[in-house]
Design goal:
Number of domains of chain B: 1
Largest sheet of chain A: 9 strands, mixed
Radius of gyration of chain B: 19 Å
CATH superfamily of the largest domain in chain A: Response regulator
Chains: A alpha/beta (426), B mainly alpha (314), C mainly alpha (292)
Strand content of chain A: 15-25%
Structural class of chain B: mainly alpha
CATH class of the largest domain in chain A: Alpha Beta
Number of helices of chain A: 10
Number of domains of chain A: 2
CATH topology of chain B: ABC transporter involved in vitamin B12 uptake, BtuC
Number of strands of chain A: 18
Oligomer: heterotrimer
CATH architecture of the largest domain in chain A: 3-Layer(aba) Sandwich
Strand order of the largest sheet of chain B: 1-4
Strand content of chain B: under 5%
Radius of gyration of chain A: 21 Å
CATH architecture of chain B: Orthogonal Bundle
Shape of chain A: globular
């Protein structure tokens, strides 16, 4: 457990030089805490296990956001504290961590988990304890109706909306005959099902679906299954073997003819795109939830955010250029913390007795304009499905850098509600 | 005081203490205790095979998962009521243990460990393969409405504790009765000297198979209860880690003792819970515990205690 | 892709996989053959080799080829030393009782893995290959380094074989394998033989990792899959038979690529796993079970 009351504790790195100056310049008042007791937020963290590469950056992002929140008055004038507990990226431990954060540390609410199995394994306990559970997971399980009234995803668009919003651009610009390569488990199946549906709705065709078992460490033998009339190769892989996959793809096509390549950045999250063996990605396209390389049109808020989380213009840590961030996903942690702030302040949150009011306040949210709280861009929240919808970015690799070429509209990703959580009891 | 009185009063006393604990412990620890009791039932099952009969299996996650999914799938897909689903889970554990046993018991020692490990791995992969129904690695939530038995909502802390305690108490009394029965002594004979028992006219294959099936029923019951009480079913519970977990509990608490699995589960749970507050590498502590145990206390805590002070301990 | 090139790629990949399997399994097989110990931590020695390779190539100011060669020397030595310590302080004190050693090596597995997490971190990091060479065929490209791995595996395996059959140390190890007590009577220091064998097995795993890590990445959880695969190879080949292990690696490596073309790969893995269990049940000497 890491317990850190930012303001008194030393920060991890010199992460906030830019942010602090920017905020003061913007006229924020330095906080003067009264005797108010801190609000305690529990963070369910993938510090170990298969999600650890993400967890490390999620923790840094949470610390950075916490610092900004505390420097700008905390939540309703109260200081904020985050308590991190490692869930080992394991659903059993995940549920125990929920228990520990709520019952032992008396946290007001819990946020932060990414991996779907941890979210689904922990959400029932959060519901039983009647504690708000704000996930940063991209999974469709929230909007799909599997969870409960207490579980929400206000910080990141789910995978169904992501792929649906990008399919039209892919069909119009890259090709109509698509082959998909995806991991053979739930996350990959979401991609398979929703992207296929979106492609077919757009007049294209998915001509092959290549499922790769998650335990695989070598992929070349799957590549001949890519039909030769493929126009677009769609890839999404996660886990430690992702770099191998992309490298082998490059070796396979070599200098010969190849289809257009469209990948989810998940295939290269936390990996340097300029790593040796990845040269062939030049000219290929990626989905990005948030542009890793700083774009020419980056907003001021994005700039402050980038400095606050300690990421340079290439998306790597400012203290170690080889330490590449999980930039496309980790903004969700930042935005979720600001939604917690907004929700608590709207609900007039005083104590754990007001948890229900908090959920209702978040459910009442709709438009979220681009701001320091929403650095990735403006969003629309659907209170019924507990899911937020935002812009997605398509980037092209140019000179070893990911350059944005298209921004989807929020409406492109909308779909019919599969659930109405507001009709469920607390 | 006769030995029998001593034995029963000790175990019933432990049960009474555990039951009373829910009124004393803070909520966090009370819920932990409910989890631990269910896991202890799993470990008691493991103990029947390993501690008493000498069958060192590395595949008990398979039997736990059989109960887990044997309960969860009928509820999730067919809207079964919880009681029949629980019973099906328990039976699934036993049946699968029987099937694995018929094949695996043709081997012994290291081969037995690897065969059970391979069957469990095949089972885990099968859960992933059948993801249309099982939800694969992601798993699924057991609907809260389905977690009510005769008006008792198992998602409420108090009810859950009592339900977990009921299973735990039944399992412990059953185990105690089993190991003190003539059959239990034959089981131990298998562990100590299989050849001699064969000469005495026992059929080792039959005895070991029965022990393994009983062990599977315990594991299945624990799996079914865990899924129902905590509301989630997923494939991560079928990984090899969940075969090692009960072994660890049993080794720590004392193989071949009735109370050992529970003691081991309590200590291990809190060892992880507390050390994870200080270090990322809390699994290091688990590893060190395993090595330390086989080196310095191969009989576990209660095993050593029995050796020195209480030879009557079952 | 037409059938010809398709088959060519399958054979290429199969050969590489066979080489990788043979490299990772031969140490396990050796340890089991001589010591009758199933080393569950074998995969972690492999992982340690890969991670050490990363440290060496990252911190030594050499060009990639030289740094990699340095890793190929340093990593196996360090891992061998760790293994020898583990043998002396843990396995020996258990008298190599099969079941106790399995439990102990499971414990070692966790300890090594978590130590790697603490020291090395959770990221998967690439290690540069000693050379970059891509073969461009008319139908597809292929990594020249992978072919080098096949050659290197051949050299290492031949060296092990020569060591076991021609050197005095190999003779002593084989003598210990056949009859420990008699060997002791002839003045062989069995403790040292065991420590040496365990270290050699671990060094082989580490050397395999240094060879393989440029085509994969170094990651603290990477030891798990090679472990299961090595088990499969060693069992199908007949526990303890080095020749059988090699044949099995070849058969499994070549067939795996082709089988997973026709079945769902997950289904192929299920079938393979069940097959291993059934081989152990019905043919405990393995499918190619000549005693080494």
């Amino acid at each position: 457990m890491t317990r850190q009351l930012i303001g008194t504790a030393p920060s991890r790195r010199a992460v906030l030089k830019g942010a602090g100056a920017g905020l003061l310049a913007a006229g924020f008042v330095a906080p003067v805490w009264a005797q108010a007791a801190p609000i305690k937020l529990g963070f369910q963290l993938h510090r170990t296990g298969i999600g650890a590469a993400y967890g490390r950056w999620y923790e840094r992002t949470a610390q950075a956001a916490l610092k900004v929140v505390n420097e700008t008055g905390g939540i309703a004038g109260r200081p904020v504290e985050i308590i991190f507990e490692d869930d080992g990226t394991d659903p059993k431990r995940g549920a125990e961590v929920v228990e520990k954060l709520v019952s032992q540390h008396n946290c007001d609410l819990i946020f932060g988990p990414l991996f779907s199995h941890v979210v689904i394994g922990s959400a029932p306990r959060a519901g039983e304890l009647k504690v708000p559970y704000l996930v940063c997971s991209e999974g469709f399980h929230v909007a799909g109706g599997m969870l409960n009234r207490w579980s929400m995803q206000p910080g990141i668009t789910d995978v169904r909306a992501q792929v649906s919003s990008m399919a039209p651009w892919v069909l119009a610009n890259l090709g109509k005959k698509v082959t998909m390569v995806f991991p053979d488990y739930a996350f990959g199946h979401d991609h398979r099902d929703f992207f296929t549906a979106a492609v077919e709705a757009g007049g294209g065709q998915v001509i092959a679906k290549i499922a790769v078992p998650p335990t695989e460490t070598s992929f070349t033998r799957y590549l001949p299954q890519i039909p030769s009339d493929t126009e677009v190769l769609y890839h999404v892989m996660v886990g430690p073997a992702v770099l191998t996959f992309v490298k082998e793809l490059g070796e396979f096509y070599g200098t010969g003819a190849r289809p257009q390549i469209f990948g989810f950045i998940d295939s290269l999250e936390a990996v340097d795109i300029a790593a040796p063996g990845l040269e062939f990605l030049e000219g290929s396209h990626f989905w990005e939830g948030h542009c890793r390389a700083k774009q020419a049109d980056a907003s001021d808020h994005e700039t402050v955010y980038r400095a606050a989380v300690g990421v340079d213009d290439n998306g790597a840590s400012v203290s170690d250029a080889k330490d590449v961030s999980t930039y496309a996903h980790m903004f969700s942690v930042w935005e979720t913390l600001f939604i917690i702030k907004a929700g608590m302040e709207a609900a007039g949150y005083q104590s754990v007795a007001d948890r229900q009011k908090f959920v209702e306040a978040v459910e009442a949210m709709t438009d979220m304009p681009e701001s320091l709280a929403h650095v990735q861009g403006n969003k629309v929240f659907n209170g019924k499905t507990h899911q937020v919808f935002g812009h997605q970015f398509i980037s092209k690799v140019e000179g070893g850098k990911l350059m944005k070429v298209h921004t989807t509209r929020i409406e492109d990703g909308m779909y019919d509600d599969a659930v109405d959580y507001t009709s469920q009891s607390f | 005081m006769t030995e029998s009185v001593k034995v029963w009063s000790l175990h019933l006393g432990v049960l009474a203490l555990v039951f009373a604990a829910q009124y004393v412990l803070p909520p966090y620890h009370a819920t932990n205790l409910a989890r631990i009791m269910v896991l202890a039932v799993f470990a008691m099952g493991y103990n029947i095979a390993f501690g008493y009969t000498g069958l060192l299996s590395l595949g008990h996650a398979l039997f736990f998962a059989a109960g887990f999914y044997g309960m969860g799938l009928p509820i999730g897909l067919l809207d079964w009521a919880p009681v029949p689903a629980l019973i099906l889970g328990l039976i699934a554990g036993g049946v699968l243990a029987g099937l694995v046993g018929v094949l695996a018991l043709r081997t012994a020692g290291v081969s037995f460990m690897i065969v059970t490990l391979m069957f469990a791995q095949a089972g885990y992969l099968t859960l992933l393969y059948l993801n249309t129904w099982t939800g694969g690695d992601e798993g699924f939530v057991v609907d809260r409405a389905a977690r009510v038995i005769a008006g008792n909502d198992l998602s409420l802390d108090g009810t859950r504790f009592v339900a977990a305690f009921g299973l735990f108490a039944a399992a412990m009394v059953g185990c105690l009765w089993l190991v003190r029965s003539p059959f239990g002594r034959v089981m131990v004979a298998m562990r100590e000297n299989e050849e001699r028992s064969r000469m005495l006219g026992y059929d080792p294959f039959r005895i070991k198979l029965i022990a393994l099936v009983l062990s599977g029923i315990y594991a299945g019951a624990a799996g079914a209860a865990y899924g129902l009480l905590f509301g989630y079913v997923g494939a991560s519970f079928a990984t090899i880690q969940y075969s090692i977990l009960p072994m660890l509990y049993v080794l720590l608490g004392g193989a071949g003792t009735v109370l050992g699995p529970f003691l081991g589960a309590v200590l291990m749970f809190y060892l992880v819970d507390i050390t994870s507050g200080y270090t990322d590498a809390y699994l290091f502590v688990v590893g060190a515990a395993l090595v330390g145990l086989v080196l310095f206390a191969p009989r576990g805590i209660l095993g050593n205690l029995r050796e020195r002070f209480a030879p009557w301990l079952p | 892709m037409s059938f010809g090139p398709f088959l060519l790629l399958a054979v290429l990949e199969g050969t590489v996989m066979a080489a990788v399997l043979a490299l990772t399994s031969v140490g396990l097989s050796l340890v089991f053959g001589v010591m009758r110990v199933v080393n569950v931590a074998h995969g972690e020695f492999y992982m340690l080799g890969a991670i050490l390779a990363w440290f060496v190539t990252y911190y030594l100011p050499f060009p990639p080829a030289l740094a990699w060669v340095a890793a190929l020397i340093i990593a196996p030595l360090v891992v061998a030393a760790i293994a020898a310590l583990a043998d002396t302080f843990v396995l020996k004190r258990l008298n190599y009782a099969p079941e106790a050693t399995i439990v102990a090596t499971i414990g070692l597995l966790y300890m090594v893995q978590q130590a790697a997490l603490t020291i090395y971190g959770p990221d998967a990091r690439p290690v540069a290959a000693p050379f970059e060479w891509r073969i461009q065929l008319p139908w597809f490209g292929y990594s020249g380094y992978k072919l080098f791995v096949v050659g290197a595996a051949g050299v290492i395996l031949a060296a092990v074989w020569l060591f076991m059959t021609r050197s005095t140390a190999g003779l002593v190890m084989r003598a210990t394998q056949i009859d420990r007590d008699t060997a002791q009577c002839f003045g062989i220091n069995v403790d040292r033989v065991y420590a040496g064998t365990f270290a050699l097995g671990a060094a082989l795993a580490a050397a395999a990792a240094v060879l393989i890590v440029p085509i994969q990445q170094a990651h603290y959880l990477m030891g798990h899959d090679p472990l299961l695969l090595s088990f499969i190879v060693v069992i199908i080949g007949g526990l303890g038979s080095i020749r059988g292990t090699l044949v099995a690696a070849l058969v499994i490596g070549l067939s795996d690529g082709i089988i997973s073309m026709f079945f769902s790969p997950t289904l192929a893995k299920i079938i393979a796993t069940l097959l291993v269990a059934l081989v152990l049940v019905f043919r405990p000497q393995g499918l190619f079970g000549a005693r080494a």
